[in-house]
Amino acid sequence: MKNLKSCCELRPFSLTCLALVFFASFAAPQSALAQRGGRGFNQEPRERIEPADMSEDLGIDKIPDRATFEKFSYQGPDVMRDGYLAGLEFVKFVLENTGEPHERVYFMNTNNHRAHPRFMPLVGIDRREVARGAITYFPRLIAPDGSNGLYTVDFEPNDSYTFEEISMFIGALTAKMPILANKVAFHPLEGNIRQYELDKEKYREAKLAVHSDRDLDIYYLPLNQAESFGRLRVMGNDARPSPRDIVIYKTLPNQMPRVAGVITETRQTPLSHVNLRAVQDKIPNAYIKEASETEGIASLIGKWVSLRVTPRVYYLREASQVEVDRHFEKLRPSEPQSPLRDLSHTKILPLSELKFSDSEAFGVKASNVAAMHKLDLPQGSVPDGFAVPFYFYDEFMKHNDLYAVVDELLAQSSARTDSEQLDKALKALRKKIRKASVPSWMENALTKVRASFPEGTSIRCRSSTNNEDLPGFSGAGLYDSFTHKADEGKLSKTIQQVFASLWNFRAFEERDFYRIDHKLAAMGVLLHPNYEGEKANGVAVTDDILYETYGNYYVNTQVGEDLVTNPNAESSPEEILLAWFEKDGHEVVRRSSEVSRDELILGEPYLKELRAGLTIIHEGFRELYGHSKQDRFAMEIEYKVTSDGDFVIKQARPWVF
């Protein structure tokens, strides 16, 4: 992954764009290009060089196979004005006299020459009518013939050609590059979109494929690039995998314990709790279309395998038991770990009095929300409330002698090795926590804090532990939060539910794997008014963590209360690359499945507010966490649009790279 930007001063002034979606690029005036490009734009044409006579330094007249395309292609950030090509593999070309006896096709050595105006004088082409463009390869997309891998052809951003011309140009290119046959699509850029709309029926009748940013038929999408070993299993959402399973799911379950690797047959969002866990646990995670029916995968189901997820392809092979055992021995820490737990804070504090450094007593979730109140964010954009310290949890456990129950559970070797027994024991422990008595002093303190909220307010009680939201440990989805209704009775009953979630199966298993001392794990609780009937919710990261473009925030949003972090089976969120600078706008990668085709959940006013908030949060927490401007650092936030239309940032935590 490219290094993350660290401060506004370092951020570029152009939007570099996505490695899977095709973006419009706007031509700069010639004077501006000349200023950037130097002498090449004003050179007099040299003597004509025919395509077949070019040196390889200049280019080639035929591309017979993938190896040749790779040799003459470029992939990287140096794309000059063509921001939409950043990070993509492409070869630029020049067509001259197309359809005439002296037709010429120049495939540029794009490693050496990435600007048509610089290349053309070198081969003696003057400024007569020529067609110029790029051929781009997308290994994850599906070609018109149904095979994996798609080539797209586009032309200068402001050029406009009729169907007849486009058909002729692609025919000329295919004659010189036969690997385009049945694997190519025309990609209309900004200037050609209107003409394409007029000619759309002609494209359909001729079966000439057209690809736009709405046509993402992806067969493979790496969510987390890593390598692992385990037993390959096809799972139903109600089945329980083991830490040594590489699982294939039709859709992601809402909650999943530790596994060795993840494959889904429905496209994922990278900001789901499952993928955040994959990133944290360094396990491979990928979407593979129809994985369980794919040759090379189906035959390995039930066997020990090695799975490696890379940017372009995945590798799956049968593995030996020895390889599997060796792999897992290397993963776990060799020594026990003790999470920090400060029990010196004995009072519930309003967030206004909580400091960033108080996370050791209240949990990172609570202290980070408190820290956001001290940043230059708009009034009311961060929820206000209170934080219950670890001291309350510890005293509650001691008051009911529940640590003895924990000791008994930890001493049961059979429960530690048998997932069914462990699950049963943890359920019994959680039930005891929910049913236990609350010390009177604690009951009084919780009653008092509840009374401080306006009458009729439902209170969101959110887990805030000492082993989640940490710089190297996300803990996403391990614990549970609950809403205390206004007419529900004692607040302590809801707090006990949050306490009990410290002993969720998935949380216990995660701590056990990392050799974290279970008895030093502690639960704090963040209290703030609950948001009901929200219009939208979302997650954003102050880096493009999926497509790895530079200069963008990565944003997922969904309608209503359909959570981005735990989406339902049929739901896909709105996916946007939001440029750091307002003038560079945003790019829609994918629209939400819950709105109409041309509708956006987050309109411009919300995107403007989100952009400003992400910039402030990134810079503020970079300093709080002590990172320099050169460090690889990003923050992940969760946000909502309330029923009243207010934009609220409800959480911020470090992104685990």
In short:
By secondary structure, the protein is of the alpha+beta class. The longest helix has 21 residues, at 604-624.
3D structure, described in words:
With 657 residues, this protein is an alpha+beta fold. The protein has 3 domains: 21-206, no CATH class; 220-331, Phosphohistidine domain (Glucose Oxidase, domain 1); 349-529, Dna Ligase, domain 1, CATH 3.30.1490. It contains 17 helices and 24 strands. The strands form 4 sheets. Strands 7-11-10-9-8-12-13 form a 7-stranded mixed sheet. A 6-stranded mixed sheet has the order 1-3-2-4-5-6, with helices on both faces. Helix 11 runs antiparallel to helix 13 and helix 13 (419-435) packs antiparallel against helix 15.
Spatial arrangement of strands, main beta sheet: 7-11-10-9-8-12-13
Radius of gyration: 28 Å
Q: In total, how many beta strands?
A: 24
Low-confidence stretches: 1-43
Q: Could you give a short account of the major beta sheet?
A: 7 strands, mixed
> Taking all residues together, what is the mean pLDDT?
85
* Class inferred from helices and paired strands: alpha+beta
- Portion of residues within helices: 25-40%
The number of distinct structural domains comes to 3
- What is the 3D shape? elongated
Portion of residues in beta strands equals 15-25%
What assembly state would you assign to the polypeptide chains in this entry? single chain
Number of helices: 17
